[in-house]
Amino acid sequence: MEDLARVFKALSDETRLKIFFLLSRRTLCVNALVCQLEVSQPAVSQHLRILKEAGLVKAEKRGYWVHYSVNRDNLGRIRKRLLNIFEEKGIRSRNAE
Length: 97
What we know:
By secondary structure, this protein is α+β, with helices and mostly antiparallel strands. The chain has helices spanning 2-11, 14-25, 30-37, 41-53, 72-88, 91-96, and strands at residues 28-29, 57-62, 65-70.
């Protein structure tokens, strides 16, 4: 449960949610995110750190730049965990009716 709580906490911030949606569309570096969000570079870097710690974002160094993208492998695991929780509690079966 701790890992899921970290995911929800990471996405509870509006700026991090925006970053996550931007990265779900394409890979971006910090400077591109700064331009898109009109937020300082240190602030974007801190938000990315939190998203990485939650397993939502991954980083890949390309030359001098680090490019960030959504960690789709981990998203699949998160999705499965959530579905298992909902099925265990009977939430899915009640909503399907």
